[in-house]
Amino acid sequence: MTKYDAREIGALLARGENVVNWIQSQERGDHISPTAILYSYDAQAGSYIDYLNNPGARTLKEKLGETLGALLDELAPHSLLEAGTGEGTSLAPILSHMRTPPARILGFDLSLSRLLFAGKHLRENGWPDVRLFTADLEKIPLASASVDVVVTVHAVEPNRGREAEILSELLRVAARYLVIVEPSYELASAEARARMDRLGYVRDLPGTLKRLGYPAKRLERWPHNSNPLNEAAMIVVEKSGEATRAEPSFISPVGGEKLIERADCLFSPDDGHAFPIIAGIPCLTIESAILASKLSAF
């Protein structure tokens, strides 16, 4: 992953330039890269919580929480993961509207800065025990079928060209259900499609899921869009309707083996990599890995 100076990225944002497009022009890639997504969202960290000062935005988030909270109550998960949780502005109202919140709650994002804001926001809203960690959507550091229900809310959105890889990984981790609220190119207007094309948003998620062997159990228009040109759909995929006691466990994104938690890191004695814990948040992307094959001896 190419590294950029955060001051330069911040200056671009302050001038009103599109950070994703700028990094794309540097990389000359066909699709938006995880690097572009990371730097763009890192520079914006805190803005999604600030946006909740807008009464209309807060009302919309509460409606989102009501709708998904009611659905999750029907699914009755023992454990829940929000993939791409950002600043926790969707997860907090979802949990608050559930009659029976899960025993284990996790959330990850590519950006550590956003998760720092998420932790504060979740604590202030009565959810201090959510386990947050950094991760890549294509390399989630959790064991297969270790979380009852996996949820996304506009997290897969900017990843056109990587739909199959990301959905496969979300399905791998989910034990019972995958619930996604993501842009729907197929249901959108011509104007909205043109915008999605310009921004590199995902398309044909239902078709991709079907090709992966998991057709949608439910597919419906999402009624709570903040932008009429970003029309979304809610898709529910069932892997197993049976209740489980799935217990999430971290694995190395390098080798896939179980991680051992130490005071300042998570360590894989198998592949020899350590992953730092910063401000209580495990950093579990491949880019965060530090080779320390002899750490077990100390």
Note the topology.
Layout: H1 6-14, H2 19-27, H3 34-44, H4 47-51, H5 55-75, E1 79-83, H6 91-96, E2 104-109, H7 112-124, E3 131-134, E4 147-153, H8 163-173, E5 174-183, H9 190-199, H10 205-211, E6 218-221, E7 232-238, E8 260-261, E9 265-268, E10 273-278, E11 281-282, E12 290-291
Parallel strand pairs: 1-2, 1-4, 2-3, 4-5
Antiparallel strand pairs: 5-7, 6-7, 8-9, 9-10, 10-11, 10-12
What can you see in these coordinates?
It is a single chain. The protein has 298 residues and is of the alpha/beta class. The protein has 10 helices and 12 strands. A 7-stranded mixed sheet has the order 3-2-1-4-5-7-6. Strands 8, 9, 10, 11 and 12 form a 5-stranded antiparallel sheet that branches. A hairpin with a 3-residue loop joins β8 (260-261) and β9. The model has no long low-confidence stretch (mean pLDDT 94).
